[in-house]
């Protein structure tokens, strides 16, 4: 990595829409993509007199996530009103959690199997639950344009996960996001779709500079409008360089100016200051008197903990220990998701050859899944079928290149390994006929025999090609072995 | 029989026996409203057609031998703070002058299910902020006993409607005394139930942790009847109590022998009107005759109640009223004019060379919010929004809001301690009888101080009842307040009912009635 004259300090705030059927404080559906304002009721449109009632499912999904992030779950948590005016916020406040969040003090481990950075635990300051706002659709550049508001999304449960400023590079930030998203997918608490807004990221970043007088920090900047993980990486790279240049030019330190908010421009690949008015808010948080505090019993925590299941970090270790796959391979398999791991484990167990399974899965299956944009659940070759193929190769019944032909047939026709071999006319050649085939070849190729006798063992390769032409089902290594044996006996 | 003077309990019997039809009874009350309300102005809107349609339906049900509810055919007026589907719910505010909610409040749903005939919506102080019904956008309500005086507030319309026999029962809301004080000024019974006893779903919020819906009527028996209908758990209100609703009516006659009544001597200190003190002490003496014993109790933190109340209520109000911004419903400023004005201001600034000033001008959205709220809210509402916004601001929160919450806890503890010694606490409802219209409109503090005896019950969340117990020499009603531990409404109603068995204050009507 390029040596930089500074250290980047990054903390991430991730908003995750939880996969609940209904909203956080009313019973409207959370389904995405419905006609505007059709999934609303007096509560989520903030009608006078309406009252929120907490959706316990949403709370339990949050707890499941928080537990997977090794967070503490306080026994007592409450709801606060975050007050600000915006047309997509019909009550004039967002119901959120301020000083008593539903979880705090956790961590998420990130690693890089290519060694770009060392494995590390990224601290989680807190994860709290809140309601989403609606969507405004308008042209911000023209003052006169009409704005349209869609309140379908208003009140959808959002879990805000706030990391410690423990990340030290854009690559680490990316790894954190990838790992967090994977975790959320394993937990099945969110569909994590950034396009639909079910996963949103804001980044807080500044630099630590080693100056003669000690370490100096540049002012913290919050970057918003990050629409993909790639954008997060680029924005962080851009912003750290920008802060360094501003430091060189102006020497402004953290504390000299208030925290700034900048928006990422994905087209121009720059961050731009947002208007000062939009950032200097006093949200006047106070406890929402319409909601009762949530009391969480140790029993409930344990019940939810029992639903968490085996998570990516533990699975990676298990694949390495129980299946003897490399760290890199374990990563690749685990990162494909829980179903994919299940497929691997089934094939490896049934075939008894985990390493070969790992290779087949990574080379043939992943390639096809990516090409076809298909999930492992939809894949036409079942785990049992693939296990049959792996077994056939492991036993020497098939060589790898014939194996790929068989696999192709299985993929296209949904056949088992045996069926595909039969369809392709692959039958194993018995020892007697193989021996007589080799004897015939030696008789027809005295020059090859002579060369081998002179010590050029490689020359026998010419016979293998001829053998395959005579009978495509012969195993090349067997042909080679028998021919050499016969020559040695002459 | 004079149907207007009959109690709701009597009306139920008359309707059941078929002596009067729901339609006829409804007509009698609608006529009464027509003849009286131009003067009293207790109603913000009268839903004549809907009321008659409801009455007809009930008559048909009865004729067909179908079951009807507990209040079937009884004419009820509802404070304009409870949402009624498709019918105006204005909260006495220009902001909601044309607002018709898309849903019924739970209390309204329960009233309809019980067969109550809803006559209309009663006038109130704007967003229930006030103690005289003078801050209403619809103009003030007059006290039926003396039309130069206020009926109290904020449920002034609800109290005046019952006092003037324009409704047999009415439903109000009480955040700091808004049922009890107008009930006292108008000579009717008013009950603020325990916080959580009645659902707040559909009650337009003023201060969520203090607001409570409650009944007003001429007799304790009628209040019990109405409370039985509107009380109970509601899954749409997380703060509503999941406790069974007693049969209040059946418990009214249990003897008072041995009832321990607490008296707070400091309630009778300077500032209390002499005639009120006399009537209240006489009322307590009547309880002694009924077998009760009297004990002094102390509520040492009550003297902070007004300050505590106005901080907490205003803080919550500042949040609750943020939704009225013109974006989704209710009043919105004239946008065309607003944009023209903005362009004009910008032009003037640019021409005068003040480019910075032009840059600093609010955008159209912020200006829309500002103008909408400036036009839609009256002075009292703005005053409280500002108080609350200030108290919740960074740097002030701990000194005001947090401190107030701590004092509130102490006030509640005082009541808990007092109720270890006594069963109810008796005292005045108000320091003065009904005051003249306009007397305090320019002096908000004197208006606030009138809530001295009532706000503690809201801060503590306990039930409290206002009961007519006398008239001043000039003929204005005087009331006794009874307070009880949480969910002891039955105790209050029993005490009130038996007091009414010994006295006739509840049968007195303002001359307005006698004339007709």
List the helices and strands and how they pair.
The complex is a heterodimer of chains A (490) and B (516).
Chain A: E1 6-17, H1 56-68, E2 76-77, E3 80-83, E4 93-96, E5 103-110, E6 120-131, E7 135-137, E8 148-150, E9 157-163, H2 170-187, E10 199-211, E11 214-217, E12 221-226, H3 229-250, E13 260-265, E14 270-273, H4 276-279, E15 286-287, E16 294-295, H5 298-305, H6 312-323, H7 327-335, H8 338-351, H9 354-372, H10 383-394, H11 400-413, H12 417-423, H13 431-444, H14 446-453, H15 461-470, H16 476-489
Parallel strand pairs in A: 12-13
Antiparallel strand pairs in A: 1-9, 1-10, 2-16, 3-4, 3-15, 5-6, 6-9, 7-8, 10-11, 10-12, 13-14
Chain B: H1 8-17, H2 22-40, E1 43-46, H3 48-63, E2 75-79, H4 106-113, E3 117-122, H5 156-163, E4 169-174, H6 180-186, E5 189-192, E6 212-217, H7 220-230, E7 260-263, H8 274-289, E8 293-296, H9 305-320, H10 335-351, H11 355-360, H12 364-376, H13 379-392, H14 398-421, E9 424-428, H15 444-449, H16 455-460, E10 464-471, E11 477-483, H17 489-502, H18 511-515
Parallel strand pairs in B: 2-3, 2-4, 7-8, 7-9
Antiparallel strand pairs in B: 1-3, 4-6, 5-6, 5-10, 9-11, 10-11
Helix pairs in contact in B: 2-3, 5-6, 7-17, 9-13, 9-14, 10-12
């Amino acid at each position: 990595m390029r040596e930089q004259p500074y250290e980047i300090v990054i903390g991430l705030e991730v908003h995750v829409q939880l996969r609940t059927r209904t909203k956080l404080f009313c019973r409207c559906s959370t389904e995405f993509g419905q006609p505007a304002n059709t999934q609303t009721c007096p509560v989520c449109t903030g009608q006078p007199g309406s009252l929120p009632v907490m959706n316990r499912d949403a709370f339990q999904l949050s707890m499941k996530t928080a537990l997977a992030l090794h967070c503490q779950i306080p026994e007592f948590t409450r709801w606060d009103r975050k007050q600000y005016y915006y047309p997509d916020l019909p009550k004039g406040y967002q119901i959120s959690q301020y000083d008593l969040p539903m979880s705090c003090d956790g961590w998420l481990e990130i690693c890089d199997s290519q060694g770009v950075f060392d494995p590390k635990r990224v601290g989680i300051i807190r994860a709290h639950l809140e309601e989403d706002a609606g969507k405004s659709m308008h042209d911000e550049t023209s003052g006169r344009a009409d704005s349209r508001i869609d309140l379908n999304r208003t009140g959808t449960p959002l879990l805000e996960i706030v990391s410690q400023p423990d990340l030290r590079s854009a690559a680490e930030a990316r790894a954190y996001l990838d790992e967090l998203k994977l975790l959320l997918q394993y937990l099945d608490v969110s569909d994590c779709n950034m396009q639909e807004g079910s996963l949103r990221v804001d980044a807080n970043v500044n630099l630590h500079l080693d100056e003669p007088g000690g370490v100096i920090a540049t002012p913290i900047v919050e970057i918003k409008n990050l629409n993909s993980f790639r954008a997060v990486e680029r924005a962080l790279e851009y912003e750290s360089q920008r802060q360094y240049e501003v430091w060189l030019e102006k020497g402004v330190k953290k504390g000299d100016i208030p925290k700034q908010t900048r928006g990422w421009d994905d087209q121009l690949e720059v961050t731009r200051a947002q208007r000062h008015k939009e950032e200097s808010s006093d949200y006047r948080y106070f406890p929402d008197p319409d909601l009762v505090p949530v009391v969480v019993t140790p029993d409930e925590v344990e019940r939810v903990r029992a639903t968490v299941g085996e998570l990516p970090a533990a699975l990676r270790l298990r694949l390495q220990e129980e299946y003897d796959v490399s760290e890199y391979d374990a990563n690749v398999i685990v990162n494909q998701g829980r179903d994919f791991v299940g497929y691997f484990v089934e094939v490896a167990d049934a075939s008894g050859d985990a390493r070969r399974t790992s290779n087949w899965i990574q080379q043939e299956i992943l390639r096809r899944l990516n090409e076809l944009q298909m999930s492992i659940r939809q894949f036409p070759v079942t785990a049992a079928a693939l296990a049959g193929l792996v077994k056939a190769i492991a036993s020497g019944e098939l060589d790898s290149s014939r194996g790929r032909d068989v696999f192709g047939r299985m993929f296209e026709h949904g056949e088992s390994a045996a069926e595909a071999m039969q369809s392709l006319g692959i039958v194993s050649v018995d020892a007697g006929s193989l021996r007589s085939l080799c004897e015939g070849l030696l008789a027809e190729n005295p020059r090859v025999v002579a060369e081998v006798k002179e010590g050029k063992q490689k020359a026998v390769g010419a016979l293998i090609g001829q053998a395959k032409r005579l009978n495509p089902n012969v195993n090349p290594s067997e042909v080679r072995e028998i021919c050499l044996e016969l020559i040695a006996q002459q | 029989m004079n149907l207007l003077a009959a109690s709701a309990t009597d009306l139920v019997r008359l309707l059941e026996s078929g002596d009067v039809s729901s339609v006829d009874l409804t007509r009698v009350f609608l006529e009464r409203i027509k003849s009286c309300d131009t003067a009293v102005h207790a109603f913000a809107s009268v839903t004549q057609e809907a009321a008659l349609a409801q009455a007809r339906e009930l008559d048909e049900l009865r004729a067909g031998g179908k079951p009807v509810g507990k209040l079937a055919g009884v004419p009820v007026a509802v404070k304009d703070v409870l949402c009624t589907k498709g019918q105006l719910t204005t909260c006495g505010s220009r902001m909601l002058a044309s607002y018709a909610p898309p849903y019924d409040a739970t209390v309204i749903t329960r009233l309809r299910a019980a067969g109550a005939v809803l006559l209309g919506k009663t006038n109130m102080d704007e967003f229930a902020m006030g103690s005289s019904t003078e801050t209403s956008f619809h103009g003030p309500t007059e006290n039926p006993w003396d039309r130069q005086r206020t009926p109290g507030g904020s449920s002034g319309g609800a109290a005046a409607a019952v006092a003037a026999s324009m409704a047999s029962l009415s439903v109000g809301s009480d955040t700091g005394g808004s049922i009890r004080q107008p009930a006292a000024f108008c000579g009717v019974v008013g009950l603020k139930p325990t916080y959580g006893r009645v659902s707040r779903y559909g009650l337009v919020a003023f201060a969520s942790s203090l607001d409570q819906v409650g009944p007003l009527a001429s007799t304790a028996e009628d209040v019990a009847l109405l409370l039985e209908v509107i009380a109970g758990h509601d899954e749409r209100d997380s703060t509503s109590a999941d406790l069974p609703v007693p049969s209040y009516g059946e418990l009214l006659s249990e003897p008072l022998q041995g009832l321990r009544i607490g008296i707070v001597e400091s309630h009778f200190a300077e500032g209390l009107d002499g005639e009120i003190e006399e009537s209240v002490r006489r009322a307590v003496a009547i309880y002694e005759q009924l077998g009760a014993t009297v004990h002094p109790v102390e509520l040492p933190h009550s003297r902070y109640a007004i300050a505590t109340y106005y901080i907490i209520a205003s803080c919550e109000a500042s949040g609750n009223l943020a939704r009225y911004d013109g974006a989704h419903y209710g009043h919105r400023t004239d946008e065309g004019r607003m944009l023209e004005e903005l362009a004009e201001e910008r032009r003037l600034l640019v021409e005068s060379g003040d480019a910075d000033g032009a840059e600093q001008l609010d955008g159209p959205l912020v200006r829309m919010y500002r103008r909408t709220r400036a036009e839609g809210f009256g002075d009292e509402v703005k005053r409280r929004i500002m108080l609350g916004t200030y108290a919740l601001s960074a740097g002030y929160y701990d000194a005001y809001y947090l401190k107030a919450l701590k004092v509130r806890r102490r006030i509640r503890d005082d009541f808990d301690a007092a109720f270890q010694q006594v069963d109810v606490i008796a005292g005045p409802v108000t320091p003065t009888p009904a005051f003249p219209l306009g007397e305090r409109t320019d002096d908000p503090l004197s208006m606030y101080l009138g809530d001295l005896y009532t706000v503690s019950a809201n801060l503590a969340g306990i039930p409290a009842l206002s009961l007519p117990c006398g008239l001043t020499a000039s003929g204005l009603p005087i009331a006794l307040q009874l307070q009880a531990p949480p969910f002891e409404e039955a105790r209050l109603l029993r005490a009130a009912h038996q007091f009414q068995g010994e006295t006739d204050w509840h049968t007195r009507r303002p001359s307005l009635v006698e004339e007709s």
